[in-house]
Amino acid sequence: QVQLVESGGGLVQPGGSLTLSCAASGNIFSIYDMGWFRQAPGKQRELVATITRGDSTNYADSVKGRFTISRDNAKNTVYLQMNNLKPEDTDVYYCYAEIVDKFRLGSPVEYWGQGTQVTVSS
Predict the structure, then answer these.
(1) Distance between CA atoms of 109 and 26, rounded to whole angstroms?
(2) What is the 3-state secondary structure of the chain?
(3) Of 72, 80, 27, 81, nearest to 53 (Cα)?
(4) Spatial distance between the Cα atoms of 111 and 95, rounded to a whole number of angstroms
(5) What are phi and psi of 88, to 5 degrees?
(6) Average pLDDT over residues 90-117
(7) Burial of 5 (C-beta count, 10 Å sphere; 0-12/13-18/19+)
(8) Torsion angle, CA of 107/5/62/117, rounded to 10 degrees?
(9) Is the distance from CB of 10 to CB of 119 less than 8 angstroms?
(10) First to last CA, the chain
(11) What sign for the dihedral angle of Cα 119, 51, 32, 21?
(12) Which pick of 7, 8, 12, 43 has the fewest CB atoms within 10 Å?
């Protein structure tokens, strides 16, 4: 069994910063791409940022220059550093990871965290 656990969400004022973390645990053989999506009520989940095992990154245009994604492969953890936050960044943020289960070797399977609320408001 594989699990993703997120932390670091909360309430922050406009212009402030937050760092989200997402740790994968369980029967992990290897992890490929990791990343973050966000979703507001009644809207589609949208990509925020992704990072490959080789540290290649991709960002949504709306967060470029403000957010930084990184990962620690030794800890099976992905991070999202969010700076200069805006009210429109308010959403539930979900992490995901493409993981090969050690007891089900083969193509990686996509796993998702439970979501963490980020609220940007004065």
Answers:
(1) 14
(2) CEEEEEECCEEECCCCCEEEEEEEEECEEEEEEEEEEEECCCCCCEEEEEECCCCCEEECCCCCCCEEEEEECCCCEEEEEECCCCHHHCEEEEEEEEEEECCCCCCCEEEECCCEEEEECC
(3) 72
(4) 8
(5) -70, -5
(6) 95
(7) middle
(8) 150
(9) yes
(10) 41
(11) negative
(12) 43
Among 7, 33, 10, smallest CA distance to 20 is for 7
Give the tens place of pLDDT for each residue, 10-27. 999 999 999 999 999 999
